[in-house]
Amino acid sequence: MAAGSDELRWAERLQAGDRKAFNGLVEKYRRPLVGFLYRMVHDAATAEELAQEVFLRVYRARARYRPSAKFSTWLFTIATNLALNSLRDGRLRRAVELPPDFSAAPAAGRGVSASADVRGESFAAEVADPKPTQEQEMIESERLRAIREAVSELPEKQRLAVVLHKYEELDYAEIAEILGCSESALKSLLFRAYETLRMKLRPFISQREP
Amino acid sequence: MSERKHLREELVVPYLDGRLGVEERAEVERHLEACAECQARVSGVRGVLEVLSQWEAAEPSEGFSRAVETRLEAEAQAEAARQARWVVRLRPAHAGVLAAAVAVLLVVALLPTTVERVEPPAPAPTARPTERAQPMPTPSAEADREADSGELAALEPALLEDYELLRDFDVLFDREPATGKPGTE
Prior knowledge:
Largest sheet of chain A: 2 strands, antiparallel
Number of strands of chain A: 2
Strand content of chain A: under 5%
Order of helices and strands of chain B: HHHHHHHH
Radius of gyration of chain A: 19 Å
Strand content of chain B: under 5%
Number of strands of chain B: 0
Oligomer: heterodimer
């Protein structure tokens, strides 16, 4: 898939060592990159450090970038490798509690409703309540903890596939290229990952008609 | 367990993403109407995707871009310092001596023990070993061992002087020449 024209121009200027082009790419990709790495390593500081390292490696290797490949594919491939290295280095900290600076605001305003309760049947979370109660905050906290834990327990490749698909919204071809598999294999991988998550997050999934 | 064929698993996520072609989508929906099990699976994945949407990620800090810039500058300065250390301005005479000395060192180090003598660089019919300030020692296993162990007494003084010159330069050991062998083009 050909790179977008703006991205291609930036990438070509980056190859030539244009620092302004590099800074533009940093501005564009820092948020998705930190987000991706955070969901992989579960630590904001580590995610930021790794994201900086990704950009440094991009700059060092700029001459090797081939404009025929999407820049985001290249970027996320580097990020994937760094994330996996970090996890394998054992720097992953399972966050049992939410980080202090993380907003525990419930799904108010996002139009999401979920039903599950602490006894494993169904929590009830009121939506569109601008002032969440303490109970709602606890429920939200528990849900987020469960999500993080469930995703982190996925096998590496499934975890990567889920994060890149669900949160980075990369297309199947890109994700398949990053993971080194076929699109068909990726789609099966995603299905199996989501099935696993469905079992683990069952108490938090609303019962809706298909 | 029903023997009815179920949806291929690789269709479920693209179906939910709206990425199936018109015909394929219609086929999936026809199947879902008739298969409760697949309905449940699709509904389950849809539910998981909704729950996952609630997981917000950390945002980059305000100083992120500046931090990248700072690290890049520091790297560039470190690289410039490294380059200055090993990029030595050799005079043409030194360059020639350098090349010759490295070549001889390699020959001495790699020659098999059966080689009995080394041809001088500019052989002349009347040139005799005794005309040298010191005769080139006959390569032997002992000389090879001395070379291997770093003993340089077996080398000619001229070469020894060049080695002293070379030893102070990191160029032999820091750079990555095309052939992978130090000192070669």
